[in-house]
Design goal:
The chain has 362 residues and is α+β, with helices and mostly antiparallel strands. It folds into three domains: 4-114, no CATH class; 124-236, no CATH class; 299-362, no CATH class. 32% of the residues lie in helices and 25% in strands. The chain has twelve helices and 18 strands. The strands form five sheets. Strands 1, 2, 3, 4, 5 and 6 form a six-stranded mixed beta sheet that branches. Strands 7, 8, 9 and 10 form a four-stranded mixed beta sheet that branches. It has a three-stranded antiparallel beta sheet with strand order 13-15-14. Belongs to the DCC1 family. This is Sister chromatid cohesion protein DCC1. It comes from Metschnikowia bicuspidata. InterPro entries: Dcc1.
Length: 362
Amino acid sequence: MSFSVYKETSPPDGHIYKLMQLPKELLDYIKTSRNVLEFKSPALGRNHLVLCTESNTYTVRQMNHSNTQLLVEDLLEPRIGKSLLNTFGLSELESSNNLLVVGLCSYLYELTPTQGDIEIAGLQVYDGTEALLSVKTCKKFAELVNDSPIAARSFQKRWHQLCGSTVNDQAVILAPDFVCDALYALVSVTIAEELNVFTLDAMTTRMVRENRKFTPSVVETICGKFCDPDDNRLTLNQAAIAKWFGVATLRKLRGVSTDKDLLLQWKSSLPPFFNALLNLKSLRGHYYRPLLGAILHLDRAGLSTDIHGRIKEMFLLVKKWDYDEFLPYVDEFIPATKKADSVILKYAKKKRAGKSFFVCPR
């Protein structure tokens, strides 16, 4: 079967067509749901666009083609109208195999699932003292939700993981030391009252009684970050709690420490009678080793935001990294579809010594 293809010399001004490749689950969502489907982009970021359903987030990426694709419609479509048929010198009887070009596409948009993100740059850090908050620089929580490129149902969990909370409807990030104080109180209450499980409301009442600075919003953040939900009840996530106190101990080191000394300080920072497994492996991505057997805190937030710059900075600190201690600092740059080595080996060498692997400059 052959077709004749026609194109207007001047495309319509009111709209433009784009091609988007939809994953099956998103196509099913569109077919069966009348719920939210929206494009979002961070207020401060550039060249970052996501498509959000109620619970899933997809990164939108432009994929260029070597050939131009034509989007066409049958000229018999009622909405096209008889005027175009007359323009091309056709009658309705003649137009069954005639197509009208409605769009020329040299690229399409590819959608990749992502966890989404929350734009916390510029948010004030809250240490329990409301007087330190500046109204002029505060951002309302509702504005933050609207500006963040993340699905609505994923927002709250991610927000708690970032230690996000609210003070008088303003979005804030809880200061690390304040989180330590609130977490210490949470664990102490569960131990003192022998609570294996508890509800958020009950724990809020107890902690507000303990310290008025631990507002319901603060307690919700602490429980959201350090507790596991089970229906409407919560249990402590001991691994997450131990890791937080371990990172806090690393951050407070005044100089190089040994593994043994770090473990002793880490243990002493925990609430009394809180027995959790302490393992330095859980702190990977928060320290480096300037010398053999020595350990020192290294905050990823202070490193470059591109992989080449970050690896270069890391090698200025240490010329030889244990592979497992190196990987957490760069894993955010590694696409889910690629193996870590395929990215790392573009910027560094991987060597083997016995059963261990190391990363060093090229």
